[in-house]
Amino acid sequence: xxxxxxxxxxxxxxxxxxxxxxxxxxxxxxxxxxxxxxxxxxxxxxxxxxxxxxxxxxxxxxxxxxxxxxxxxxxxxxxxxxxxxxxxxxxxxxxxxxxxxxxxxxxxxxxxxxxxx
Length: 117
Prior knowledge:
Layout: E1 4-7, E2 10-13, E3 18-24, E4 33-39, E5 46-52, E6 57-59, E7 67-72, E8 77-82, E9 91-100, E10 103-107, E11 111-116
Parallel strand pairs: 2-11
Antiparallel strand pairs: 1-3, 3-8, 4-5, 4-9, 5-6, 7-8, 9-10, 9-11
């Protein structure tokens, strides 16, 4: 079963950018869906962005036009480029991998993003 390790979080000023990375312990070529979720203090975890094995993407309305998810099957890494960051983006960001055959749903341990005003 794949293991996921996030990196790239930190403290950034509003309007700035961060690039998050999710390194997988094995090939992600056959992983059906990879995504980023986030959880802010006092809130439920929510989807930020998904990317499928075919390259299709979807985004939460709150990040459309600002965030971009990408998938590098050679390096077994998924990235989340976050631009024009807002204080509302402050959260722990989690990488997620899902497959259906065989079935699994794996989470990373998260990376903290703090956006100051």
